[in-house]
Design brief:
The chain has 155 residues and is of the alpha+beta class. It has one domain: RutC-like (60s Ribosomal Protein L30, Chain: A). Helices cover 32% and strands 25% of the residues. The protein contains three helices and five strands. Strand 1 and strand 2 form a beta hairpin. Helix 1 crosses helix 3.
Length: 155
């Protein structure tokens, strides 16, 4: 029997961060029937700050990828807080990723792969890979490098 998401976290020795608080008037996640809508999250670092800067100017693609993975960890922290366990996730349905980048940057998908590959590691290729858009942005709140929102199906 395949490992559960919570078992995968333990096996990979991943510790989820304390979920970030909303930066304005919104919910970080909202459960509606069997759908968990997760608001845009930023690349939260262990010290509680965010990875900031423009990919292609201030940050490399690899640093953007790492920032997107950090977003994934923050999202998983929020999901666990909302549901009590990641094992209630049936599948990732949709990901919308924004990359704070220079005007000539074209590698948005490679950056957002940091998030997508983490989801596949935790939930498996079938349940952890959904539909996705990766978009460039001229700016993001507080100059964060990446912002990602997503939608999960819940058991």
């Amino acid at each position: 029997m395949p490992a559960t998401p919570e078992e995968r976290l333990r096996d990979l020795k991943i510790t989820l961060p304390t979920p970030p608080k909303a930066m304005a008037k919104y919910r970080t996640a909202l459960l509606v029937d069997s759908r968990l809508f997760v608001s845009g999250h930023g690349p939260l670092k262990e010290d509680g700050t965010y990875t900031q800067g423009k990919v292609g100017d201030d940050l490399t693609i690899a640093q953007g990828y790492t920032a997107a993975r950090a977003v994934g960890l923050a999202v998983l922290g929020t999901v666990r807080q909302e549901l009590g366990t990641l094992d209630r996730i049936k599948r990732l349905i949709r990901t919308l990723g924004f990359v704070n980048c220079s005007a000539d940057f074209r590698e948005h998908p490679q950056v957002i792969n940091g998030f997508s590959e983490l989801m596949a590691e935790i939930f498996g290729d079938e349940a952890g890979v959904g539909v996705r858009s990766a978009v460039g942005a001229a700016s993001l709140p507080v100059n964060i490098a990446v912002e990602i929102e997503c939608l999960f199906e819940v058991r």
